[in-house]
Automatic annotation (TrEMBL):
Superkingdom of source: Bacteria
Organism phylogeny: Bacteria, Bacillati, Actinomycetota, Actinomycetes, Streptosporangiales
Organism, scientific name: Microbispora catharanthi
Active site: 89 (acyl-thioester intermediate), 337 (proton acceptor), 367 (proton acceptor)
GO MF terms held by the record: acetyl-CoA C-acetyltransferase activity
Protein name: Acetyl-CoA C-acetyltransferase
């Protein structure tokens, strides 16, 4: 049976809004990560079959196939093609899936899966705003309205709906967010991210964590919706960042003298209610575990994107996961969520944490626009 191996994974620091990466062109940010991946793995870049890059707001500086532009900007061979994909927040996790599938199919041997987003330069919603300016008052077409009605479709509403469904109150959300900051700050202080980060323009660490935040400070914030429970403190941060992963076949490992660090065990994908939008990691995880023949207790490290605190809290309750193994070094509430870059960044964190702790299995999942979720299970080698 064919195998797909992860032989390299690297990321930039995650920059905060108006932070150290806010002026870095997204093409250059992604190019930096691609260069670091090639350098750290020692792979011949001319042997790469494709570069698949996730990016959500493919608008302005992030348009015109940023995967190709970043590869060329990194000074890498013109003979290697690139393609940019959008599965919303899971875009670069889907890039990893496509890369692994190319290798597993036997049609490719070396594929770069990457992601990037500069939310400072290309704000979230830029592409929707452009459509609205063209006189399209609702972001979906008539057939959508026929099926779901003309109602608010947003991640903010979805987060509040999750709170309603799972009985999550504001104080529980804030305790979770506080723990995320504490874990992230501790990880940085202990150097847990040092080996996985390729510093950019003097920025060496993730900028988002607030080790001095308190529950009292969180309680003072206004909710994002009147009468709601979600605040900025219990939401992922607006961020800039990029990550890249190299996927290789057994043949490529032999031919290029590469070192397999993990193998892809399972790739799963599912959809759920698009109004709730953020719930799909729950059924997707069940599907992935069943495909892998594993139980949640077999998973040593989980990286689930903290788009909003209700997402991991509801997932933990439904799946029965160990909170201590879930985002052990903090998540997007503390570390940030650069949209299309997050999937590759989370995989980089997951791989390095398995290696640091000696764990065997890791699981990555994240909610995505449209009510979707990817799940990737890897085994450390």
């Amino acid at each position: 049976m064919a195998e797909a191996y992860i032989v390299g994974a690297v990321r930039t620091p995650v920059g905060k809004k108006k932070g150290g990466l806010s002026a870095v062109h997204p093409v250059d940010l992604a190019a930096h990560t691609l260069s670091a991946l090639v350098e750290r793995t020692g792979v011949d870049p001319a042997a790469v079959d494709d570069v698949i890059m996730g990016c959500v707001m493919q608008f302005g500086p992030q348009s015109m196939d940023i995967a190709r532009n970043a590869w060329l900007s990194a000074g890498l061979p013109e003979t290697v093609a690139g393609v940019t994909i959008d599965r919303q927040c899971g875009s670069s996790q889907q890039a990893i899936h496509f890369a692994a599938q190319g290798v597993l199919s036997g049609t490719q041997d070396l594929v770069v899966a990457a992601g990037v987003e500069s939310m400072s330069i290309v704000p979230m919603g830029s592409s929707i705003t452009a459509a609205l300016e063209k006189g399209m008052p609702f972001p979906f077409g008539d057939k959508w309205v026929e099926r779901y009605g003309k109602q608010e479709i947003s991640q903010f509403r979805g987060a509040e709906l999750m709170c309603d469904k799972w009985g999550l109150e504001r104080d529980e959300l804030e305790r979770y967010a506080y723990e995320s900051h504490q874990r992230a700050a501790k990880a940085i202080a202990n150097g847990h991210f040092k080996d996985q980060i390729a510093p950019v323009d003097g920025v060496t660490d993730d900028e988002g964590p607030r080790p001095d935040t308190t529950l009292e400070k969180m309680a003072e914030l206004k909710t994002l919706r009147e009468g709601g429970r979600i605040t900025a403190a219990t939401s992922s941060q607006i961020s800039d960042g990029s990550g890249a992963v190299l996927i290789a076949s057994e043949q490529a490992v032999r031919d290029h003298g590469l070192v397999p660090r993990a193998r892809i065990v399972t790739l799963a994908l599912t959809g759920d209610d698009p109004i709730y939008m953020l719930t799909a990691p729950i059924p997707a995880t069940r599907k992935a575990l069943a495909k892998a023949g594993l139980a949640i207790g077999d998973i040593d490290v989980v990286e689930i994107n903290e788009a909003f605190a209700p997402v991991p809290l509801a997932w933990i309750k439904e799946i029965g996961a160990d909170p201590a193994r879930t985002n052990p070094n903090g998540g997007a509430i503390a570390l940030g969520h650069p949209l299309g870059g997050t999937g590759a960044i989370l995989m980089t964190k997951l791989l390095h944490e398995l290696e640091r702790t000696g764990g065997r299995y890791g699981l990555q999942t994240m909610c995505e626009g449209g009510g979707q979720a990817n799940v990737t299970i890897i085994e450390r080698l």
